[in-house]
Every structure is written in structure tokens, then in C-alpha cells.
Amino acid sequence: MQCMWSRRKFLRLAGGAAGMLAGGGAGIRIFGSEVPEAEAAIAARVNVAVASGASPSENARKAVAALGGIKAFIGRGDVVVLKPNIGWDRTPEQAANTNPEVVVALAEMCLSAGAKQVRVFDRTCNEARRCYVNSGIQSAVEAFGKKRGASDILRVYHVEDRKFRRTTIPGAFALKEWDLYQDALEADKIVNVPIAKHHGLATATLGLKNMMGVMGGNRGQIHYNLSDCLADLHRRLPTSLTVIDATRVLLRNGPSGGNLADVQAQGKIFASADVVAADVVAAERVFQWKVKDVAHIQKALEAKIGVTSPAQIRVVEA
Amino acid sequence: MSVRTLRRISQWAIFLVFVFLFLNTEYKDNDVLPYAVNIFLRLDPLVAGAAAVTGRALISLVWPALIVVGLTALLGRFFCGWACPMGAILDAVDATVFAGLRRRGVVPGTWRRWKYLILVFLAGSALFTLQWVFFFDPISILIRTFAVSVFPAMNRIVHDAFGLLYQAHPGAAARVSEPVYDFLKAHFLAFEQPVFRTAAPVGILFLAILAAEYFQKRFWCRNLCPLGALLGLLSRFGLFRRRVMEDGCTRCDLCEKSCRMGAIHDDIETLHGECVGCMDCQVICPEEVIRFSGKEGRQEAAVDLTRRGILTSAALGAFTVPFFRVEARRKAPDPGLIRPPGALPEDGFLARCTRCGECMRVCIANGLQPTWFEAGPEGMWSPILVPRIGYCEFNCTLCGQVCPTGAIRRLPLADKKKVKIGLAEVDRSRCLPWRGQSDCIVCEEHCPTASKAIILKKEMGMTIAGEPRVFKRPYIDEGLCIGCGICETKCPLTDRGAVYVTSRGESRAVSGGPLGS
């Protein structure tokens, strides 16, 4: 836990808001620095749940439960796109792709909420089949689907060129239009399941960056103006739930990694309805990076696609 | 069941095995291919002999060819009649496209000597280390044609046809055509549409071989195929030959007219080196006086091969070698000559490479492409990596697994990752962060080496508008770079990569000295 306030401020707040802070067994903290009294008095608006201490799937369940349970996000009959990071030809231990157990846990939750379809895919960076196989995600999801007899509801599949649709993005800063994947455009709900990693350009790749997996065309070009383009992408494709896998974290040489020495076991899961909030908390907790260190998170706050200030975030320890 | 039916079953079965192996020359969720997909090439005595002679090595991969040699010595040119997939295709074309065509002896029978002369030419050049078997070997031709031309084209047609249906009637299509498309995609179609240089010329050459059937049945096999010539020579002492009971023969000419190889003279005599044992004559003979057996009765006719012809071909084969060897490429290798990881040094590589196309077919990112003249005319259609099209996938070893002659050695993954096939370079005049245009570093993002070979340095630069700003700029660490090319493939510049790979610094280079290349 990071304490970001001066002792003086803390004492003032502790005195004035003792009642508020005392409640909640697991501890609820206001997130952010330089929180003026008046703002602190307004109840924090967006929850980010942090779970640790159990298996990756159990942590995922705890984190979602702390936000009100999966039914707060997925409705019966929803067509859900579950978007993990399957971008790299790497094994789970190399922490370049989302942990398969976390993906399965979320798939299970979506099924239990009565989703009509749960669609798992990603547009990969390395060769697609190798990524799907070596990440362990394809076999984990297929095995789970088979076990549940839900293979017609829960599907993991490769993207196809012909299903990218030229989409305009109203109100865009930079990304006026782009080819976006049809299944993501048509989904009722998108569940964004990134893995937390270092990234050469973006500093960190978390929830905001993960949604690049639904972009077609020459998507490397958005690197020219990553912060603005990511904000625009989320403007067009808002996600219902973001679950950041920080079970194993790639601290260096991301996003492709490959060297086990760069991987640190942290055993955490972060979850939030608000992708910007999730990224703010995860960047801080996983890498000790402030918002100002990660340009695209800073931009996302300014773009008003989610929370607009870290002060609006309430961290819930699950 | 007549012997003719047996033979057809044999041809079909072996052709289906051939197609099966071709379709499985692809990554199917397994790092190691489960089938010996290159077995046809390894069984091919012409390929085996040429690679071994030119490469001056006993190549263990190609010992299966000895099986075919042995069987040919016993049974004659059965391979051509019962097994060869090229022969099967030609027979199928005859039976369908050119069915009922009355060919009127347009092609002189003397042309059959050319396949022997070609064989001698190839032997002569192989002896002097030039290997051009690929251009004439039927198995190599077939696999290469399928790999770079026919299969990609068929894939395109099917994909586009189903795509049209999908766009035009999405609702109805989803119910009817999409399941069919999914099935085809899962078992027959390529995962991603492959593209290849030389696709059109290679395809046209193959069509020419098929079109030649118009003029004469089995035109290729009779007149051009050096593998057939080799097998014909090897079958000189075969036990299993066509024999006619002369007394019963009425000289009706039915056998002679139906012989697909034109191997029958005056109904009684047989050119044993031409006969492929299809046994149509035995089936068709109304007097049933034709047998295939090892019993006595030579009744042999001879192919008109003059000593002069043989000597000329051999000499020609030998004397073309120096002309290939004074090509400029010998002194100034093309920077684009990026060979697959595990490739032998260039001379040994070209000696063994049969341009069969297996490595190009299996290359998972479609990066291996046929050369035109990057390796000189001698090296035409051998594989090079073209990173703008596809890169060398870091954890993949498929090309070394499929090479039938060991021109690309099969390396364990750990060794393959250490092989440098070239080095990347950043063209600072084009790279966006280098010229102050914008951020990028997609190259560094994709660099697969455990410690990335592309280093980012934060440096002060000037934007186009003249404002100072920090840019993250890519630098290549040549000690770490293996030349896989993913940086060049992924560079977002659409014309040429601002980072690109050349063959400089490859592990195979003998010269270069301790200070590098």
C-alpha cells in the first residue's frame, strides 16, 4: 500500500473522516495524491478491486465479486467478447499473454451469468496459430468448454481479414476511422482481460493498450500517436469490465519478452468497470508508475473516456 | 480385378498420399511435423544422386532412394507407371481433358533420346559441382509447382468464392456456405493466403508439361524426364518384363497403339527402358499372348542413343559449369540473399538444394521465397527470406525439418535461435523518430531475442515544426541481432521498411574476420 499524502493532510482527513474510513472489513482507501478535503468528502465514484493470495482463477473471481459479481456486468442472453492478450508466441511462464487460468475463470463467470455467446479472440503479433497454442489459451478454453458442454456458446477462434469493418470514430482526436473487428463492434459486452507488462513505447501495456487486438490494418501506425489513438479506440468501443492479470508480470523487454529473468510473480488481479481506473491502479501497484509516467493513461484521463482524476478511484481489497 | 485396375488403384493411392503429405507440410499446432512430408523427394533416385554427387557427401536423409533403385532393378520402370504422381496427373489429364483425342504421330519417336541426354547433361554438371536437377526432376517440379503456384491459386479461388457468398448473402451464407468453408479451411485450405514470387512462371511451365499431352501421351515421361531415363537405365537387368508369345500374336497393333509410352515395336518387340509396366497391353490383347514375367525372351528394341549424343551432353554439362561460376554474384553476393537458418555455406547449399519448395511451403510466416537471380542463375528458385513479405518466426524450426537433402540442416530450437541469418539496420533518414516525424518503435516491440537486439535510446531531437522534443530512437545491437526480419516485416512504413535486414553478418560467412562484416 502506498501512502501518498503528507502526514498533516492525513491527520486532518483521518480526524474528519474517521467514520468513513473505519467502515469495510478489508479496507477502502481513497486513491490519489494531493486530495483536498472537499473532494475526499465526496464518496469516490469508481471501484477498482485488487485480489491476491489465491490461485489466479480464484483471484479473478474474488476481484469480480468485490465489484458486485459478474451479473453486475453481464446480462442473460448477452453476446460477450472476452478479449485476452494472445498476441505473442510465448508460454504462460514468459508472461507475454494473459494467464489461461484467468481467461477460463472469466469465461466461466460469463457463462454463469447466462451469456448467449462468449467469444474469445485476439489479433496476434506473432503467427496466430503458434500464439494461440503456446499461450495455452486455446487448449484451456476449449477444454473448459468441452467439460461444460458449452462448446457452442464458448468459442475461441482466429480472426479473419474479411470481418474487419471500416468504422468511423465520432469525436476522435486522432483516429478518425479504422478497421475494427466485426465481433467486437456487434458484441453486447466486451470483457477486456489484459496482462500487465512493460512496453518499450507505452511504458506499460494494460487495459487501454490491450484493446488494440480488435484493430485491423496497419495498426503499427497508431504508435505515431499512441495516447490519442488509444483514447479514441475506447471512445468507440467501451468495455464493460476490465480484469488486469498481474499473476506474472513482465518487467523488462516487453511486450514480447522471452527471458524468464524478466518475469516477476506478483500474484495479483485488478478489476474494474472503468478501464482507465484499472490502468491507473495497476500501473501504480505493479510497476510503481504514476499517471504522469505513462502518457497514454494521462491522456485517457484527460479524454474523459472513464475517470478523469485518480481521486475518483476507490481501491477495494478483495 | 484386372491388373489395370490394380495399377489405377496404386496410382490413385500414392497420389492421395502425395496430396496428404503436401497438405500436412504445414504447422498444425505441433512444433515438430508428425509426418515425413518430404519422403517422395527422399525416395527419388535422381534427387538423391544429384545431391550426393554434387555435394560430394553421403547424405543419410536420402537413403530411401536406394529402395526405389533396388525395386527398379527388379521390376523395371514400375515407378513411372504405378507410383509417380506426375505420371498419375498426366494419365488423369489424358483420360479427361484429352480423352478420345486422336494423336497422329506428331512427335517423332526419336525424341525419346532427349531424356537420356538431359540426364547425361545433369550428371556431367553434377560431377563438376553444378546441380540443376530441380528444373527437370518431376517430383521437385510437382512439389514446387503446388507449393508456390497451384495451391496458393486454388486457395485464392475458394476463399474469394466463399467470400463473395458471404458478402452478398450474409444471413443465408452463414447457414449454408460458411460451414462448408470452415470445413475446407480446417482440412485443406491454407491458414493464411500464401503469396510467392515466381508463381506465374512456375505455373505456366507446369501447364506446358500438361499441355504437351495434346501432342503425345506421356510426352514428358517419354521425352524429357531424366528420372524416367535414370530408372530406364537402372531397369536394364530387370526380371519383370513384357513378353509376347510370338506364335499367338496376330499383329493386330492394338497393343502398340494403346501403349502410353510408345514402347512397343511391331507388337512383339519392347523398348524395356521405356516400358513403365502399366500392363494395358496385357489387358487389351485379344489373343492374350502378352505376359509380364521374368522368363527368358529378350525381344528387345533399343533406344537410338548415339555415342556422340552422350559425349556431347556430358561435355556440355561439364562445360556450362564455369559459365555459371563467373557470374558477378560470386564476388558481390546480393545483400538480399538471406538464407534460412541452418542453411549450409553457399556452395554446399546450392549443391544440395533441389528447389523443391518444401521449405517455402512450410515457412509459417510465408517469408521464404524463391530467388530469381539473387544467388545468380545457378541458384535460381532456391529459398531466401524476404522480410517485407514474412519473417523467420523465432520459435519455429520447420524448414530444417522438411529439407530432403540437408541443404537446410535440421537444428534443435536452441541452436537455431543462435544462428544469425543476417543483420538488421536502421535507415535513419527514413525512420520516423530519427527524422523527427513522430514516435514509433514497432520494430523494438516485436524483436524476439531474450535481450532485445533493438535498443531504444531517449534522445533530444527536433520535430518537423522545429520544436525540440525527446524521441525514443531504435539502435541495433549487432551482437544480439539474428536477422529474423520481424522488425522489417512490422515496420509501419508501407513502401520499404525503415529497418531492414541484409545478409551481412550471417553465421555462415567464412570471411569477415574478427572485426566483423
Comma- or semicolon-separated keywords:
heterodimer, A: 318 residues, alpha/beta, Rossmann fold, 2 domains, 11-stranded mixed sheet, two-stranded antiparallel ribbon, 12 helices, 22% strand, globular, disordered N terminus, B: 517 residues, mainly alpha, Alpha-Beta Plaits, two-stranded antiparallel sheet, 21 helices, 9% strand, elongated, disordered C terminus
Could you describe the 3D structure shown?
- The complex is a heterodimer of chains A (318) and B (517).
- Chain A has 318 residues and is α/β, with parallel strands linked by helices.
- Chain A folds into two domains: 1-43, no CATH class; 44-317, 3-Layer(aba) Sandwich (Rossmann fold), CATH 3.40.50.11440.
- Helices cover 33% and strands 22% of the residues of chain A.
- Chain A has twelve helices and 13 strands.
- Chain A has helices at residues 7-16, 18-22, 37-41, 56-66, 100-112, 128-134, 137-148, 182-186, 207-210, 226-236, 275-287, 295-303, and strands at 28-30, 46-52, 79-84, 117-120, 154-156, 164-168, 177-181, 189-193, 195-199, 203-205, 241-250, 263-272, 313-317.
- In chain A, strands 1, 2, 3, 4, 5, 8, 9, 10, 11, 12 and 13 form an eleven-stranded mixed β-sheet that branches. In chain A, strands 6-7 form a two-stranded antiparallel ribbon.
- In chain A, a hairpin with a 3-residue loop joins β9 (195-199) and β10 (203-205).
- The longest helix of chain A has 13 residues, at 100-112.
- The radius of gyration of chain A is 19 Å and the shape is globular.
- The two termini of chain A are 14 Å apart.
- Residues 1-5 and 10-30 of chain A have low confidence and may be disordered.
- With 517 residues, chain B is mainly alpha-helical.
- Among the domains of chain B are: 3-143 and 215-293, no CATH class; 148-201; 420-506, Alpha-Beta Plaits, CATH 3.30.70.
- Chain B has 21 helices and ten strands.
- Chain B has helices at 3-23, 39-43, 45-55, 64-75, 78-83, 85-96, 113-127, 138-168, 170-187, 199-211, 219-223, 226-234, 254-258, 280-284, 307-325, 346-352, 358-362, 398-402, 413-416, 442-446, 486-490; strands spanning 241-244, 264-265, 269-270, 290-293, 368-370, 383-385, 423-426, 454-462, 468-476, 499-502.
- In chain B, strands 1-4 form a two-stranded antiparallel ribbon. A two-stranded antiparallel ribbon of chain B has the order 2-3. In chain B, strands 5-6 form a two-stranded antiparallel ribbon.
- Chain B is elongated and about 100 Å long.
- The termini of chain B are far apart.
- The model of chain B is unreliable at 511-517 (pLDDT under 50).
- At the A-B interface, α6 of A face α8 and α20 of B.
